[in-house]
TrEMBL record:
Protein source organism: Agrilactobacillus yilanensis
Swiss-Prot/TrEMBL keywords: Cell membrane, Membrane, Transmembrane, Transmembrane helix, Transport
Topology relative to the membrane: Multi-pass membrane protein
The keyword Repeat is annotated on this UniProt entry: no
NCBIfam families according to UniProt: PRK15238.1
Subcellular location: Cell membrane
Protein encoded by which gene: yjeM
Record-annotated membrane-spanning stretches: 12-33, 39-57, 89-112, 132-150, 162-184, 210-234, 246-266, 286-311, 323-344, 364-385, 437-458, 465-486
Pfam families: AA_permease_2
Protein name in the entry: Glutamate/gamma-aminobutyrate family transporter YjeM
Coiled coil: none
Amino acid sequence: MSKKTVELSFPKLVLIIATTVFSFTSMSNAFYLMSYAAMPWYIVAGLLFFVPYALIVSEFTGNLGQYSGGLYSWIDHSLSQKAAFLTTFLWYSSYTIWLASLFMKLWIPLSILSFGQDLTTRTASFWHIPQIYWLGLGSCILVLIVVFLINKGFFTISRFMLLGGSLIALLFVVMAVSNLILLVNHHGQLSQPMQQHILLNSPNRDYQGLLGNLGFFIFGITAFGGLDTVASLVDRVGHNKRRFPFAILIAAILITVTYLAGIFLWGASANWAAIFTNQKVSLGNAMYFLMFNLGHQLGGVLGLSSAGTLILSQIFLRLTGLVLFWAYIGLIMTIAYAPLKSIITGTPKNFWPHFLTKENKQGIASHAVLGQGLLIIGLIWLVVFSNAHAVNLYNNLTLMTNVSRSIPYLIVAIAFIQFRKQQHDYQLIAPRYANLASGLVITTILSAISFSIILPLFKAHYLESMLLLIGPMIFSIIAVILYHHFNRQIELS
């Protein structure tokens, strides 16, 4: 993939980085899981993981931004080529399996936008064909559309990233302003009372006690994930790659503040017990309940009639569906391109078969993009067009990627220790704090991985715990086999 760049203004660059990492869904789910008790854990996750990791990524992009390999190049220059390939393959594998899930989830916000409710779980049939098959077919068509759009080049990808990011920013502004109006109208009184004990104890019974809080700590860390993905695109942003590290830091501050502000502001319109005792609420739809309720509360404050209030609630609900649909598209475009770009362009020349690395006029390895698309379609067929056993297999594959997605953060932090032993022009972290930054990230990720594996054991979910552990081992073995095979091919040629 040649370096076809796109000149992005600094504000657009910050917007893309911030909205790629920030998740409106994670913010809403945090309030659903913990209410205000989520805030201290987000602060801890931000200070111990996200801020030091953002500093580390900033230094890598500031010194190695000219390389196309992104995460691969960072580890290759710091540790070894083998470590770089193994890490990037784990990273790529987990995102590819997640992509199949995202294509299936894409229909939920589209259903909310079109019908005001999620119809994707219904067992209806059309032309005597079950609805799940139509959803699967539609998902496969979407995969091919995304393949086509990626092959149009990074300019097209960046447009979708900007559109998704802009809409997410708009949705947050709507949510924040509406809640502030309610807060002012109620003379500062929150629907969910702010009390000292609620900052330390979740009203959700599943997230109380040591195990519950540790479970949410893992959730808090994952809410800050994705920075390495967007940072891998630094070589494609034209002259602004020099300001990319600074953009990462500005985005990191914005993300952290936005998460905390959003969790607090939900309390202006939503009383936790009144909304979330509804058994229909889940992690998949909590934000829709919150936005519908926000419209209902705002309609009452504005003096609208019952019909007018219902219309406003539906507008808020469907706006959320619209934004989440395009946000998913932007996210899909990013993670379908960035990890593949890193693993293709970071590796040495002739490492992969020539047909996989051959570029089109837009500088995209179109055959590799198509191959990835066909792999994702295969995973979708596995889920939709097979029996329950295949569905369980896919769920198990997803479990296997959960830890695999965290390991690259760990390796990047370890690589940074070695990287700082070299002489570099761009040093954002003072020498005495460089190892501290790496140590914080390493400790946090190791703790999160350990908790992820151990916590299911307390619930007697032994298979889940085993899959979390086996997943990285299997992907690592595949990566080592591929690495030695392609290296042997290079030696023979």
